[in-house]
Amino acid sequence: MEKSKEYNNIKLIISIISTIINLVIIFILGFSKIGIYIKNISGNNIFYYGLITIIIFFISEIGFSYYSGYYLEKKNNLSNENIKKWIIKTLKEFGIGLVIGEILIVSLYFFIKISKDRWWIYFYIFMMIINIILGVIAPTVILPLFYKFKELDNENLKSKILDLTSKVKVKLVGIYKFDLSKETKKANAAFTGLGKNKRIIIADNLLNEFSDDEIVAVFAHEMGHFVKKHILKQVVISSVIMFILLFLINSYFYLDYNNFIVIYQVGFYFFIFQLFISFLLNLYSRKNEKEADLYAKEIMGTGEYLIEALKKLSKQNLADENPNKIIEFLTYSHPSIGTRINYLKE
């Protein structure tokens, strides 16, 4: 218990420090002469400007990423990676972040140059399109860069999951297992993809450590999100929030439209707003998670399978089952394991 609390507290502290440093960097890039200096050395080229600033963020993050994502995981016997594999994975993540970051930076500045009054509408529409594209290509283009996927060969488990999805008429491309155990002892499973590209992915360490009924209970929880339309509601809410934030930034905050630094002025305001809104979004997310848990209990006829799965996940992931209530309220997108087990027993 003490080990899990120490592990999660260190993770939280690192996350807070990293967030503060990123906020300071965005502020410096957007509101100081350093941002202008970077613009000058980039040759007034928005692409090179984006490249330089993305590298700055990468350098500022790499130490925290190493300590939290590699050293701390190794120290607590949660990682199966060696340093070489961690570096390769980190470089892949940087490459993907670089491509997406450049697209967003260049497009935002392009829309601002087109119209200083309507840029935020154009950028909002563009962001919606990007999110849809990423949702579609994630399972077939992005995730295979990190893991190998194979059709699930446990026919009994596959049959149980398909019976579950058929009850709510969810059409799947397939059910796949992937080699998460090569990098971590933590277990995971999820729905991925959008529309006709929707599929279920299950980590090999989940398959190895959990019973079929426990795995089915985990997916019954995920089906609860589908039945309750949580995903659709969260997409709508997030889209509305983004629209409102961009409108407010354009209407009421200082923006230097004549310089590249306007990119990070927009980013700074957006970052601040999201920090405050995240508390409310976490509250809403925890409500949805509870509803999905109770749906899984209802459709499985018992909460015991999900309870056992949560206990195993807690142990495998070194989760803090009963965190400080204030920390849980402010930072948890899911109810704590202890809270979930308690209401599943009722």
Keywords:
four-stranded mixed beta sheet; 346 residues; metalloendopeptidase activity; single chain; mainly alpha; 4 strands; globular
Our count of domains comes out at 1
Question: How large a portion of the residues is in β-strands, by DSSP E?
Answer: under 5%
Q: How would you write the strand order of the largest sheet?
A: 1-2-4-3
Percent of residues in helices:
over 70%
Q: Helix-strand pattern, N to C?
A: HHHHHEHEEEHHHHHHH
State Rg.
Answer: 22 Å
Distance from first to last alpha carbon = 24 Å
User: Which structural class should the secondary elements be placed in?
Assistant: mainly alpha
The biggest beta sheet is recorded as: 4 strands, mixed
- Taking pLDDT < 50 over at least 5 consecutive residues as the criterion, the unreliable ranges are none
Keywords: Hydrolase, Membrane, Metal-binding, Metalloprotease, Protease, Transmembrane, Transmembrane helix, Zinc
Transmembrane segments: 12-34, 46-72, 93-112, 124-147, 235-255, 261-284
Binding site for Zn(2+): 221, 225, 289
Cofactor: Zn(2+)
Short structural summary:
This protein has 346 residues and is mainly alpha-helical.
Can you tell me about this structure?
- Helices cover 73% and strands 5% of the residues.
- The chain has 346 residues and is mainly alpha-helical.
- It has one domain.
- Strands 1-2-4-3 form a four-stranded mixed beta sheet.
- It is globular, with a radius of gyration of 22 Å.
Secondary structure blueprint with pairings:
Blueprint: H1 2-31, H2 33-41, H3 46-75, H4 83-114, H5 119-142, E1 149-151, H6 155-167, E2 175-178, E3 189-192, E4 199-203, H7 204-209, H8 212-227, H9 230-252, H10 262-300, H11 304-317, H12 325-331, H13 337-345
Parallel strand pairs: 2-4
Antiparallel strand pairs: 1-2, 3-4
